[in-house]
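Q: Second attempt. The first request was missing the SMILES, so the protein and zinc ion are both included now.
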Amino acid sequence: MTQPEAISLPFRVGDVLWMPLAESRQVTIPCPICAGKRVVRVELGDGDLVTVDCDGCGLGFSGPQGTITEREHDPKVERFEIAEPVSLYGGEWQVRSTTGAEHELKDLYPTEAEAFAVAAKRSAQQTEHNMMSRARRKKGLSKTAWTVRYHRERIRDAERELAWHRARLHDKWGSHDDAA
Ligand SMILES: [Zn+2]
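A: Got both inputs this time. The predicted holo structure:
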């Protein structure tokens, strides 16, 4: 039977490494679509301007809020002095620090600068993710524009039809009434 002592550790207790972290916080910012006005003016193809509820901040039951909530991650690093190994799973070591934090050894870096570069890269990815969800909100706006255009076209068609029926009624019965 293999003795635990036979496993050679790729680190030493007391090694000081650096852990990349992202300090997550929720931020509320003005809606990027309506800039807090809760409504947007949509210009239709014929140049008409209509005001509609903002879709960008209008998700949910309470209607447009004028703000959106995002998670932002500020990069930071923390000193990690290895106190003991925790586990070895799939070839990856999990270690515990002198402050009780647990982390994967492969995500610990020998210098503060290296760890910070990794943390900064992750924060940038989060920023990119936020920008992508803003772009998705903007797609919601074009849906609004389309919906407005659709309803206005239906109204115009209905008005034309109504006008046609009125004209027919007048042609057929109007002259008859006059004759009588
Ligand atoms: Zn909005």
